[in-house]
Structure formats: C-alpha cells, structure tokens
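Lab manual, section 2.4: Encoding a predicted structure.

Procedure: take the sequence of the chain (392 residues), apply the prediction step described in section 2.3, and record the output as structure tokens. A sample record is shown.
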Amino acid sequence: MKSSKWRDGKGDVVGEFVKACRKYGLGAGIYLSPWDRHDKRYGTPAYNDYYISQVNELFDRYGRIDSFWLDLAFKDEGYTMPFEWQRIYDAMYRRNPAVTIEMGGPDVGWIGNEAGSGLETCWNFHELPYATTSGALPGRMPFAYTGGIQPEAENVGKHPNYKAIPALRYCPRLGDASVRRGWFWNPDQSRGPEWWKQIYFNCVGRGSSMMYGFAPDRRGHFPEEDVAGAVALRKMLDEIQQTDFAAGKPITADTTWKSIAGHEAAKSVDGDPLSYWAAEESSTTAALEVDLGKPCQFNVVNLQEPVFMGQRVKKYRVEYLDGETWKPFSEGTTIGHRKLDRRAAVTASKVRLIIDDARAYPLISTFSLHRTSFIVKEAEEKKTGTREEKAI
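Recorded output:
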C-alpha cells in the first residue's frame, strides 16, 4: 500500500473492509496465511513469534476479528516450518474467545479441493484431543484439516498424530472456489451463472458450507458478469424455496421417540429447523412416509438433521410412489446440516425416506420436496490446478 498511488500511499484496505463489514452487520474474517516464504524468519521457530505479532496487530488496529482463514499451502518446494499451532490458536482465542479458525484450525475444516466439490460422505466432526501428560500436541497438523480423508467410525480415536484421549467435536466443512478461473482478475475468465448454481449443489448440497471468492477488476469493482452469477444463484434459491410439496402434509413414521412428546413425524415437515422427528432410542433404521394428497412433480429433495443434536445418518434412500409401484429417486450416505438430492423430475403422490443405517437413533428436522428449472450437470471439476492447491 505504501508503494501504491491509492490514497496517496496511506490507504488501509483492511481497515476499510472491517468498517464495511460492521456497517452491514457482518462479522469480519481475515485471511492470514502462514505461507509467507518471503520473510527471512520463515522455516525457523522465530517465525511463530512474527506470525502471532501479526495476529495481535490485527486486533490492536481493528478491534474484534470474527474469523481467521489459515491457508496450509506450505508443503511444496522442500520448505519445512516448525509451526506451534496451539500457541497460534491460543493467541487468537485470547483476543476473541468466539473467533472461528478455519481450514488450518480446529473450528472449521476443509473439503479438500478449491473447486467447490464437496465430499459425498461428509462427517462434520473431528477429534478433539484432551490434554494429557503424554502431551506433544504443538506442531501437529490440526485434525480439522483432513482434505478428502474422513474419519470413519472404525478409525475414530486412532489418528497417529495424536497422543491424547480423543473426543468428537462438531466441525463444519467449508468449500472454496474462485468465481473466475484463477484467484485474481483476468479478462474473459468469468465462469458464468450456471457454474454458480452447480457449485451450490456440489458443496452446500452435500453438507458443507461454500465460500465464493470474488476478485475485483482494475477499476476496483466486482465485474458485472460475476455479480450476475450471484444474482442467478439467488434467483434459483428463491425458485426452490417457493415450492415445498411436503410442507404440512400428513406424514407417518415406522418408529417414534416415546419417552418425551413433541418429536413426532410431523416435526420434519413443519418448516421449523429447530424442531425434529426422532426415532425410538434403540433404532438405527427408520422410515418416514409423506402423503402429498395429489400427484406433484418435483426434482429436488432437501434433507436436514438437527446438527445441534449431532450428526447420525450413515446411509439412506428416497423413494416415490408411481401409481402403485415404489421407485428409487436417490440414495446417499451422510445428511448432516443439509443434503440436496436432485434428479430428473418425477411425479408422485407419496414419497418416503428410508434410513438404512445410523450412528444413533435418527433425527430429521427437514424433509421437503422442491422443483427447479436448473438442469444439473453430471460431470464436475474436482481440482482447479492452482499452485496453492498443489502445495496443499
């Protein structure tokens, strides 16, 4: 900034960003990459002191910081760096106990690619090590950073990097992708509005959250074609939300929690994300069947678990009644915060969700049926080929 003509070399882009976030009621998140190979201290323990000083400087200058994104692209070209991760985390938590540390931290994990392609099986938890005398956690790779590797049930508690007693902790996954082909602005690199919609299904529709990366152009503005993509996505979501053929319709379950009232099958179609149907305590399989009352055409099924009660479903399928025959619509493994199954449009008067396996008795907060005019492609990108992704 000092060497630029912007604001006569006295501009503070971070300060203006934080001010704008607060003006519109948003939390301020900072990308503070540990991958600063240009600093002469990089690769030595002294770099940890420098990095923590940067953390404190951000809080000192700008007040509350709500999240930090820690890119872990530092493993290429033979570089090694003895990061003191726990010390870094503690420095952030000390200044804001509610801060979320993302990607390279214990609060929000990654999906494993920069193409916004979420994992088909997405468990939103990781191992939280309790402190023990066996110690030696500083410098270990945080388990939230798993990339494409998910902790299956038989492996939980066996992670080789941890010498501590593990416990499970809820950890949402986050996908990221640039809305242009590359992280910085170049002409004629817009991906187009259909890409925006596809990525939403690929990531949010598989139980993760999604961060779309904008790159300002040489005017300092977001390009019109990129803004158009965001608007097209909003219109698609509005279209989907305008239809819910299952809302308030009669629904039955083959098993229901009996100890406490208020968790009957109707809770899954009442439109309240805080209410939920619960199966009987001993059940790890269950089925919900909704009667639409008349033939309805849909092509999207939205499923959600009340993740504040934990993530449970391991395997499920959705079927629809075509005349007198039950036919498959979709099948999958995890549901979590949200699972959007989209297929060719079908017409049905009844639809059922069959849970074939779960870690504990299943809970479903939302079982809804929608229609969208957006045609979803079968093929998708898995990698972007960026230098950062290769390094990660």
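Check your result against the sample. The domain at 251-370 is CATH 2.60.120.260 (Jelly Rolls).
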